[in-house]
Structures are given as structure tokens and as C-alpha cells.
Amino acid sequence: MFALLAILANVAITVVSAQDPVSFNTSSTLFGSLTNCGTSGTPSCGGDPSQENLCCYEYPGGLLLQTQFWDTKPSTGPVDSWTIHGLWPDNCDGSHASNCDPNRDYTDIPRLLREQGADDTLSFMERYWVDIHGRNERFWEHEWSTHGTCYSTLQPSCLRHGSPHGAEAVIFFRRVVELFKKLPTYDWLAAQGITPSEDQTYSLSELTDALKAASGYTPAITCSGRAINQISWYFYVRGSLIDGEFVPIDSPLDSSCASSGLRYYPKSG
Question: Which GO terms describe its molecular function (predicted)?
Fold first, then answer.
């Protein structure tokens, strides 16, 4: 039952780039493979879907957003880290589908993770993938049913024969957690002298320039009024979401914040 997840545990997440910025390239050797896709194909949004195996080419949602929260009212998660919102497969034109397969609206995500040997992923989620109202399980269920079921490369038919029920959801949560660990937004801002403050204000360009200097890429920042509260890092994926490569790109969308006077409030703890 744990064979699929045991292999997955040894698959290191790979982030690649044509520009290959040293600060962001976290390429690692794959110690195992869950698919026959490989990582040498065309990244999503770059090929002809009619000619592709959709178990190995993400379509139609080939524009991936790894979204993170900065919640202060109420505060959620560690005071020195952003938290996970999700990993969304937007269409290449910026539109998106949702709730793509109600038959796979799995519940009791913690049980699913434990039964398939993903206790470490669950422990991380309990700290870094948290709901502002404390309804974590409902939040995880929503992210899977709304976004996770829309990945073409996570269709059950794309998994190995004999994979346990719900294995594709477990893979989804593992991959989101692994990618989030490669995107330390708080640390990247702090490295450029931008830290939470009750008094300091920042310009949008200060924030985006700092993150680009640290990562090599420009994300999209979302604000509530003048307070920054969400960030989205954009990717294409080469191969399957299961064991493919994430290809980072600059955000195709502008940030939704004002140009100046932005607040990065501290969490209360």
C-alpha cells in the first residue's frame, strides 16, 4: 500500500529555469520515478495539447500559482514564515477551472495522509497550511476539490496500477509542501532588509525588487487595503506534477497593491 508513496518520498523536487539564476535553482537528482514521463518534454503552456499525453503534459491548467498567505488579523502560522494557500492550475490564458471532479472530493485528509505514509507532510501542513478560523481540514479539502482535481497529470488513470485510493491527493499535498519549502518568502524579504513592522511602509517596487533579487523572479503581490496579505509565485511544469520539473517564470499579472505606502504588519504570535 505504501509502495507508491515510498518512491515519492525519494523524489526530490526540481525547479529549473532557462535563465538558471543561481539563488533559485534547486535542481536535484531524481532517485526514483513514478511515471514514464521524464522531464525533457515541453513545459506546460508551450506545446500542442492535441499531440501530448495529458498524463505527462499539464493541460488545460498549465500555468501554476503557488500562493502564500501573510495573515495578521487573526495571525496564523509562525511569526517568521508565510503560510500555504495552495497550488492552482490556471489555464494558460489566465482563466481557470474549478471543482473538476466531484467524485474525488475526498474528506478526512489527515487520515488519507497517515494511511499512505505521509505523516511528515501532515505535520508540516498543521503548522504551515492553516486556516484563519482554525478549520484546517475543511481548508485542505477545499484546496484539493477546487484545484487539485483539475490537474490532468493527477488523474487516477495516470497513476501506477494498484495505487491506493486517493493516492493522487496525497501526491498533491506532498508536492505543494515540497514546493513551498523552496519558496521562503519571509527569508527572502528579510535578506533585503524588509521585515514586518507596525510603523514602516514600503513601496511595491521595493517588495518586488527584493524578491526578484533573492529568487530571480517577480511574483504577484496582493493587498487588503494597504496591507500585503498574499503572494503568488508562477510556474510551468515540465512532465507530470507527480515527478516533473517546476519551471519558474515572472508573474504574467500585475500585483494588485498600491504603488506606495504598503504595510507589512507583524503577526501577533
Answer: hydrolase activity; ribonuclease T2 activity; RNA binding
Q: Whole-angstrom Cα distance, residue 12 to residue 55?
A: 20
Identify whether the C-beta of residue 113 lies closer than 8 Å to the C-beta of residue 121: yes
Catalytic residue among 85, 141, 168, 178: 85
Do 233 and 66 form a contact (C-beta atoms < 8 A)?
Answer: yes
Instruction: Select which of 58, 141, 147, 245 is catalytic.
Output: 147
- Given the residues 141, 143, 168, 245, select the one marked as catalytic: 143
Is residue 28 predicted with pLDDT exceeding 70? no
DSSP string over 113-139: HHHTT-HHHHHHHHHHS--TTS-HHHH
96 is catalytic: no
Annotated active-site residue 147? The verdict is yes
Ordered by start, the domain boundaries in the chain are: 3-69+84-183+234-252
Residue 115 bears catalytic tag:
no
- What CATH number should be reported for the domain whose range is 3-69+84-183+234-252? 3.90.730.10
Q: Read off the DSSP letter of residue 26.
A: -
Q: How many residues appear in the chain?
A: 269
Question: What's the pLDDT score for residue 37?
Answer: 85
